[in-house]
Amino acid sequence: MMKSLNVAVLGLGRLGSAVATRAGMFHHVRTWNRTSMPSSPGWTTTPADAVTDADVVLVCLYDATACRSVLESCLDSIPETATVVNNSTVSPAEAEQLAQLVSQHGRGYLHAPVIGSVAAVESGRLTILTGGKPIEPARKVLESLGEILVAETSGEAAALKLVANGVLGDTLLALRRALHRGEALSLPRATVLDMLERTALSGTVSKKRDLLTKAPSQNSLSAFTVAALGKDLRLLADSLAATTDASAVLGILLSNGALDSTDDVARLSAVTQDWDHLADARLTISPDVTADPAVLDPLYAYARGHATGDPEHFRRAFLPTAHIEGRRDGAFTSWGLQEYCGLFNGPALDEQDRRRTLDHLTVRGTIATATMTLRHGSSKFVDMFVLITDAAGNWRIANKVYERQPG
User: Is 123 exposed, middle or buried (0-12, 13-18, 19+ CB in 10 A)?
Assistant: First the structure.
């Protein structure tokens, strides 16, 4: 039986390959990929060969740079009656620029990023966010892939996709916190996952359970990589002019080797950091915190100063110009570093019973803020820090404010 439409698929990554296979069940498909994939049905050696005689050109590429490069190489070969349907994740501004590029060449353009995994493609259950209502024959091809959700413009469709992937990042971060809280409470991971499958995180846990329990070396091929999510979160951050928590956590875990860029995104929730070396300062890290060890170093030195009563630890933690200011039982206090160091002369008699917790840490480039709770005897101290990298590039505490709360 003759296939009803000619469809070109440009880009055969995980998504593109699945799209080509699914579309090939209903239409005649030609494919192209930057790296050779002759085993792909209808594979061609150039984008221009793939799009010749196409009714619909599906673009499934990594970013806007790749989209522009590939489209510029083949636009003149696309029939004037064809529609370019771009499934790639790009920023709203980039989507509008790509729409303008294609339109200037007299071809139709539909920005149509998708929500869903390879499994959703295979079953025809993708959610497709289109910048405008698809016209024939693009509508017919997209309906074979899943459900269409119509936005007004290319930029809106691109923005919706970034919001969706922001939700994914937030979900993985919430799952990460839940797993770490269970670990802090000495709960078996399997039991925690059983419970989480009965909460708002149930869908993610059910789909990713194996990846949340296995070592990284046991991972199957990533359905959605850490690198791809990181790229999308950066696009979201740039579009909002703000940094997302998930993007910051990803950056930390990638920089210290806890994550690999090719890992499935589920590993963001699963990997842990080893803080056993903080025990001699009686310092623990809240399950809500993912910390860069370099930023943590002055906070650890600060906690060591309290644990030992040795002021040299404070001199290592603080900049020489630092001030320590706060309220003790309602009275305002203000000390320079030397004056503050003079308050310490050996460990407290009840040091074995004292505890310190890093509750919060936010890093933005070369500056950071942190909050620590100190439970010292019958009193609780809440310390807030401003940190900065010094001339040598080392993190130091610039200033501290605190409040002493009676027990």
Answer: exposed
Question: From start to end of 53-164, where are the E strands?
Answer: 56-59, 83-86, 108-111, 114-115, 126-131, 146-151
Domain contains 1:
no
Confidence class for position 66, pLDDT limits 50, 70, 90: very high
Q: Rounded CA gap, 267 and 225, in Å?
A: 9
- Measure Cα distances from 306 to 276, 301, 345, 386 in Å: 18, 9, 10, 18
- Tokens read off for 255: 């920089």
The answer on 13 and 126 residing in a single domain is yes
pTM: 0.88
pLDDT at 395: 98
Cα(155)–Cα(90) distance, integer angstroms: 9
Instruction: In whole angstroms, give the CA distance from residue 193 to residue 205.
Output: 7
Token pair, residue 238, equals: 């740039």
Does any domain span residue 310? Answer: yes
Task: Give pLDDT tens digits for 350-370.
Answer: 999 999 999 999 998 899 999
At what angle are helices 92-104 and 154-184 packed, to 10 degrees?
Answer: 150
In the structure, what pLDDT confidence band is assigned to residue 70 with cuts at 50, 70 and 90? very high
State whether 55 and 116 are in the same domain.
Answer: yes
Cis-peptide, bond into residue 113, ω within 30° of zero: no
Is the residue at 340 inside a domain?
yes
| Residue from 130, 109, 62 nearest 90 by CA | 62
